[in-house]
Structure formats: structure tokens, C-alpha cells
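Hi there, hope your week has been kind to you so far. For a while now I've been wondering how a particular protein folds. I'm sending you its amino acid sequence along with the C-alpha cells. Could you read through the record and tell me how the C-alpha cells relate to the sequence? Take your time with it, there's no hurry, and the full record follows here.
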Amino acid sequence: MFAYIIRRLIGAVFLLIIITAVTFAIFFLVPRLGGATADDLASRYVGRSAGAEQIHQTAVKLGFTDPLYEQYGRFLKGLVAGQDYNYGPATEHCPAPCFGYSFLTQNPVWPDLVDRLPVTASLAFGAAFIWLVTGVGTGVVSALKRGSLLDRSTMSIALAGVSLPIFFTGLLSLSIFSYSLGWTAQGGTNPMDASNPAWWAYDLILPWVTLAFLYAASYARLTRAGMLETMNEDFVRTARAKGLPERTVVIKHGLRSALTPILTIFGLDLGLLLGGAILTETTFSLPGIGQYAVIALRANDLPKVLGVTLVAAVFIIVANLVVDLLYAVVDPRVRTQ
């Protein structure tokens, strides 16, 4: 088990290094291949009134004229130990992890991401709890009641949930439950500013349910398929023949064996949401990382986009690492491999 954990940790570190290299290439190498020069990259760091000489001096100070491998080395050093930026009259130190400074606000990107992370984390974990409970529970019940009216009804609702995009269900939910009935918050507020947990949940309940509806539908279908397969296996029939209660057979033998693919997709889904639930945060005007990414893309603020990309990659890697470790808990066979 210990060797299994070490192998997964080493693999996660190497994967993170590869992602940083690919991300660096996308933001700094691809523009060069497209014809951009060092001065073109430096022009984003100076005002519009700057002359060619000033832009070139900025490119030299920022190291854009250096070989790409040296720039990548400084990029990695900035992520681990911080980086100094020489803009001319003064040298600014960007503490680690340094993703650079915004083109528009001239503020470091990392503190902005930290400020917005609680909103995204609240949205992701709250919705994840709802879709796991409802999706997995619905899938188990549908598998046990295969072919019944309940099974057909829940799978029809699940199909609708998978088919409808979040910006449609989100706007429809806002129109009905917020603006017409007044039951939920209307969006555009920061739930982390709430004075107590009740108001925090009130601000997020509609985004939670709307986002969970999309994912719960997929998890219900996946759980149903896995349960239908495992409940016909020999070890399940053996457990029933031994006289075990049906609840024990379903949960301990059937559901546990069907959880492996659910864990796989859950790690990926949760990691992606922690990196920014772009559509949900935009629909409900939540000041999270997803909305931050949209604003950065519209303004062509590349350091912000770079920061969101790397943070999302880290969350996905960590989530999948946790899933790999949970495999050993759900499936004992993993411990011996």
C-alpha cells in the first residue's frame, strides 16, 4: 500500500511538471511560432503610448529576448520561489506561486485567485454532495426496480438533465424561483459575505441544485448501469445464498463494486469545478474563479488566464490522486497490484 501511494505521488509530480511545460509553450512558444516577437509580448506590459524603444527595453528587462529554456526555468522558479519583475524605476517581487501581474490592474494574479477560491469551492463541494447523494441513490433504486415505472421516470429525467445545458436550466431556474416566486437569491451576490451559514446557503442553494441536476443525471445513469452488471455477478448470488440481508448485499457487495467508475468520473468532475465552474458562475454572477477566467479572456489578460489554467490543472491532478488512493479502499485488489 505504501509503495502504491509513493508511485502515485511521483506520477502526480511528473504530470504537474509536464502540464507546466505545456502551459508555458501555449502562452509563450505558440505566439512565437505564429510570428510574434519579444517586443510584441512586451507591449502588453506597457501603456499604449509607449514607443518602440521603451517596448524593446521592457522586453529585455522581462527576459523575453532570452532563450526559451531560460524563460521556462524562470517560470518554474517563480512558481516555487517567487520572481522579481524589473519594470524600470522599481523592481517588484512576486511571491510564490507567481503567475505574474495583471495587464489591466497591475495586481499579482495569485491573491486574486485566493480571494475567489472560497466561492468556487463552496459551489463545487455543495453541488458535489447533492449530485452524489441523489445521483447514486437514484441509480441504485432504478437498478433494483429495473423496468418499473419508477425506473423509466427517473431515467427520463436523467436524460433530460444530461441534455439540457447549464445556462438554460440556470436562467430558467432564476426566472421561476428567484424572480417570479422569490424563493431563492437572484444572483450577483458574494455568498462569502453572508453573516451566517443560513444566508450563505440561501445564496448558493439555487446554483447548487442547478449544477447538481446536470451531474446527478450522469451519475444516476452510470450507477444504474454498474449496479445492473454487478448484481448479476457470481459473488452477489453467493452472498444471497449465504443468507446475508438484502441491504448488505446491495450496499456492501453490489454498490461497492460499482463505485470504481463513479470514483473515476467524480475526481475529474470535482477537479474541473474547483478550477472554475465557468457557466454556472457566469449564469448566477458568482465572483468565483470561473467568472474571473471569463473576465480575463474578454480583456485578453493573459497572466490571469495562465493562473487559472495552472490552478485548474493542479486541482484536477490532486483530485485524481485522491481518487487513485481511494481505489485501494473501495477495491482491495488494488493494494496488491
